[in-house]
Amino acid sequence: MSKLRSIHLITILVALLIVIVAFLLFPFFVFSATLPDDTKLMVRASKLQIPFVENNGQMKDKSVKFYASTFAGNVYVTEKGEIVYGFFKESLIGATLPNIKAEGKAATKVNYFVGAKDNWKAGIPTWDSVSLGEVYEGVELKLKAYGRNVEKLFIVNECGSVEDIKVTLEGADNLEVNSSGELEVETELGTVKFTKPFAYQEIDGKKIEVGCEFVITREQSDRSNLSSYGFQVASYNNNYPLVIDPLLASTFIGGNDIDYVYGIAIDTSGNVYITGSTYSYDFPTTPGAYDRAGSFFYEQDVFVSKLNNTLTSLLASTFIAGISDDVAENIAIDSSGNIYVVGYTESSNFPYTTGAYDTTINGYAAFISKLDNTLSSLLASTFIDYGQIQTITVSSSGNVFVTGKTNSPNFPTTADAYDTSFSGTSDSFISKLDNGLTSLLASTLIGGGYAEGISDLTIDSSGNIYITGGTGSIWYSSSYPTTPGAYDTTYGGWGDVFVSKLNNSLTTLLASTFLGGQAMDGASAIALDSSGNVYITGGTSTQGMIPPDFPTTVGAYVTSYDEQADIFISKFNNTLSSLIASTLGAGGSLIKIDSSGNIITSGWSVISKMNNTLSALLDSAPIESGYSDHVMVRDMDSSGNIFIAGYTSASDFQTTEGAYDRSYNGEYDVFVSKYRIGDDIPTAITLSSFAANQKGKKVSIKWETATEIDNIGFNILRSESESGPYEKINKKLINAKGTSTKGASYYLNDKNIESGKTYWYKLEDIDSNKGIMDHAPLAVKINYRKKK
């Protein structure tokens, strides 16, 4: 054990992987380097790129030039340029004899001490990647091993042609491209997937994505049915190299360790973005993402993930990470679809961009990072020292407003700001930056010095800023600022709600009021209606002899407490001088105004819909969660769907058919759920065609839609009788486009057929209301020559 305690992190990874299979594949290896032992570091190490080991005679198979050990098994590169996995082998059709060489010498070295001393090998080098050179004219191929994956990077230079690339798989029973664009490889051990290929060019320092799809070619002969795959790409700039990356990967959400989610936002297309922090070495990222590696050590990393509106596909996912703890607190989207993430970092190398407002970090700092909507580029990133950012809102003009808390008199404020003097042990702040995060346009403190916290910020049509939160503590009366004529200028007791309004330049406090009784009160969210009225929601709790006296209004939905604690919704005019309506019994952590002016709120356990006078509960729906589920954040899309995100340690957490990942991965997993209250979403598909035809020893089933509205997916049902019973033949739901005015094409092959029989096929589509529609059955009579 004393030697293991001095093993280098990377060599720990290689040692673990190789020792696991040593008894079956090759002799034991001994490694040496220096780093203190830590079992969590060994788990974390799988985030590292895995080096290729050079075969210097330690392997009996001399045709192997290099090998790497991934968590998905070993991969070998032969002298002929073959890529050999545990259960199939890839070869390039028509390629020139490869010029195989290693690139990027890694720090790890392998020692081989087995048998007679003359056979020992010491200091065997390892490499970051293996290049097969120019495998076709103008086309190079490089390999990288990483975590569970092996990346093949085809670089098509100016004189190369994508059409030349053809890869055959020996050991594969069949190849198919599924409706998600993934290549499915059927083997005797099951189905393996290559993710949809990602192609890009780097032009003027920017990564430009190029549309790319798998293409399958089949060659029939008397002896075999050979299948190969290649690529079809959209038009691109032939003056620059094109990189094609088909990644061999598993598909799952969450990792095998602790994952937390703290922010959620929805773009204008209905895509769902979540952010948080993860300890999981295998938290899923996607090809082309800004950062797929995360940090080297067992620390928290920021993640940002993008899912489609039906939660069936992970569209993009990336890390933003340094070498120490990095935590995201919230997320926002601007009118161009760019993504903003805020949080804090302890990493000295947390990424920032040239020209950012603040590029220095003094051990701990808040950060704001901006990514494009594919999560492939870090467009801007800056620090704000001496503070912790908790909320972010982007104005219609693109300016970025953040709020949070500071414990330091050194927190940056701007000249003429409303308040530049630190009040006490802790103050809240509001800061305004430009869209490129290069300038601090305005920054002010606000508070009375005792535990104030801003929970939410919104902006009216005139650009005025509204904030809400909670102030005060058990021991101190609050000096949080209020304004003459405000609804309530007297601090109530243990803790009061505050609502404040400032001008856009943060130089003037236009209005500010308390809201609460003698109990402990706090607000979580704020929203404005089309008339400028201000709605807030939160919670109130009374203790001991303190009376339950949170203010409600005549005719409100609920005016008395539910035991010692309750949730509330309150409505002010836009000058904060009048409490128009206030009710208990509804609300929580989210408040939105729907297209009809109704108030949508969500808490831990229920989603509610109320009229805008807060006098009637129009509808409600329970949030399906249990003791082990932690609901953290909520948002609403333009169609009125409510999205809930959190984390859970429950292995039986309820998921829905066709969801991106239905498997619990260990410790805490992030979850995202979609709800709707009130009228169901109008859902429909217009089917253009539905056909089933025998092709050899399979039935090819194809269908096309002209339009789709909130469609989740399809099943194919089969029976040997038109009247049934019918059974589903697809193993999992066939994901649909969701909502599309252009429709889409789908297919499925039925291989479990028998000559002489007639099969009937039905198409079943499922919408987000869990409605199911069957499309008329088709009959296919099977006839093929059986082997004697």
Please write out the topology:
Layout: H1 9-25, H2 39-44, E1 49-50, E2 52-54, E3 64-70, E4 73-78, E5 83-84, E6 89-92, E7 101-112, E8 121-136, E9 139-146, E10 149-156, E11 167-170, E12 174-177, E13 183-187, E14 190-194, E15 198-203, E16 206-210, E17 212-220, E18 225-233, E19 242-245, E20 247-248, E21 259-266, E22 272-278, E23 301-307, E24 314-320, E25 326-333, E26 339-345, E27 365-371, E28 378-385, E29 388-394, E30 400-406, E31 427-433, E32 440-446, E33 453-459, E34 465-471, E35 496-502, E36 509-515, E37 520-528, E38 534-541, E39 565-572, E40 579-584, E41 590-593, E42 599-602, E43 606-610, E44 617-622, E45 629-636, E46 642-648, E47 669-675, E48 684-695, E49 698-709, E50 711-719, E51 727-728, E52 734-735, E53 744-750, E54 758-767, E55 772-781
Antiparallel strand pairs: 1-9, 2-3, 2-8, 3-4, 4-5, 5-6, 6-11, 7-8, 8-9, 9-10, 10-19, 10-20, 11-18, 12-13, 13-14, 15-16, 15-19, 17-18, 21-22, 22-23, 23-24, 25-26, 26-27, 27-28, 29-30, 30-31, 31-32, 33-34, 34-35, 35-36, 37-38, 38-39, 39-40, 41-42, 42-43, 43-44, 45-46, 46-47, 48-49, 49-53, ...
Describe this entry's structure for a reader.
With 788 residues, the protein is mostly beta strands. Among the domains are: 4-248, no CATH class; 254-385 and 627-679, no CATH class; 684-781, Immunoglobulin-like (Sandwich), CATH 2.60.40.10. The chain contains two helices and 55 strands. The strands form eleven sheets. The chain has a 17-stranded antiparallel β-sheet that branches. Strand 29 and strand 30 form a beta hairpin.
